[in-house]
Design brief:
- By secondary structure, the protein is α+β, with helices and mostly antiparallel strands.
- It contains eleven helices and eleven strands.
- The chain has two domains: about 180 residues, PPPDE domains (endopeptidase fold (from Nostoc punctiforme), Alpha-Beta Complex); about 120 residues, Glutaredoxin (3-Layer(aba) Sandwich), CATH 3.40.30.
- The termini are far apart.
- Belongs to the DeSI family.
């Protein structure tokens, strides 16, 4: 009987490429270190759930280089026995049965760890989907994470769900697929709110629309994509955002005051978002009428209101230190 002991470890990757750590305080009120993908390392291979049960040389998968490695212990179970176990559970861990919440890569590595060393992977990794992916930021990242975790493995990948002679798909390009997909998810338009959206009730302009006032003195910064919005709000101690459109009457009325106040309150970062040009920001924040103003302090929303009442704008800014 083979009594050789094999070290078992857990490779841990961040599918969000650092975005969870950066933006989770704003959306959750606390920091989450990563959106974890994990792989079990034993017998000189890394086993993971990605388009089926796969095995590759450790740290050579499409997930990049692990940001953390956790030592799980040792096992006396021979490699052949373990791989037979993988074949026995392969129908459960197929591409068709992948579920981001209930049957994901971390559920797979947890089951493997229990088989090999008698204990599971860290609980915070198993419980993360329900905690994070139900949030606003989680919903923005969910399509990207699902797309990425369902990627087929490279030609050097061994599959336990398929006959050994089955032709595998060609390897992906050498570009950073992870970052590319995450960035696409943050930049793509989000589903529209189910609430009544007055933004869709656009008033047809008159044949000769009134000439708009040109504002030259201002400290207002225009934001034209969602990623920039998140970064600026997170990095600003105090900020206010004006959501507007060019055709909105109340927006035009309050616009000069908003720009004037930006000069009078240099300690506040003033931003505006033209919803007609950057609809994904409005959708992700459920802005359903205009003008809408949101005040943030250290990335946390402190005040939100709609309408062009000038005194309300002045009063809310005076509350800020």
């Amino acid at each position: 009987m083979d009594h050789h002991k094999y070290k078992v470890s857990l490779n841990m990757y961040d599918l969000s490429q650092g975005m969870a750590r950066q933006f989770s305080p704003m959306f959750l009120g606390k920091q989450i270190d990563a959106i974890w993908h994990t792989g079990i390392v034993v017998y000189g291979k890394e086993y993971y759930f990605g388009g089926g049960i796969c095995a590759q040389t450790p740290k050579s998968t499409i997930y990049g280089y692990p940001i953390e490695v956790s030592q799980l212990g040792e096992t006396e179970i021979p490699q052949g026995t373990f791989e037979e176990f993988l074949r026995s559970i392969s129908s459960k861990y197929s591409m068709e049965k992948y579920d981001l919440f209930e049957n994901n890569c971390n559920n797979f590595t947890n089951e493997c760890a229990l088989f090999l060393v008698g204990k599971g992977i860290p609980e915070n990794i198993i419980g993360l989907p329900q905690e994070f992916l139900n949030t606003q930021l989680g919903q923005m990242l969910k399509p990207a994470i699902e797309q990425f975790t369902n990627k087929q493995a490279t030609a050097q990948t061994e599959h336990f769900n398929e006959p050994q002679n089955q032709q595998l798909q060609p390897p992906p390009s050498s570009q950073n697929i992870n970052a590319q997909i995450i960035n696409q998810a943050l930049l793509q338009p989000q589903p529209q709110s189910s609430q009544p959206i007055s933004l869709n009730q656009k008033v047809q302009p008159a044949q000769q629309p009134p000439q708009q006032q040109t504002i030259t003195d201002t400290n207002v910064t225009a934001i034209d994509d969602l990623t920039t919005y998140l970064c600026l709000i997170e990095s600003s101690p105090v900020s206010i955002v004006d959501f507007y459109t060019d055709w909105c009457g109340p927006c035009k009325t309050i616009k000069p005051l908003f720009h004037k106040l930006s000069l009078e309150h240099p300690h506040i970062n003033f931003y505006n978002v033209n919803i007609d040009k950057v609809r994904e920001i409005a959708d992700s924040l459920q802005v359903s009428s205009i003008p809408t103003f949101i005040i943030y302090e250290n990335g946390q929303q402190k005040e939100r209101w709609t309408g062009g009442n000038q005194q309300t704008l002045i009063n809310n800014l005076q509350k800020l230190k």
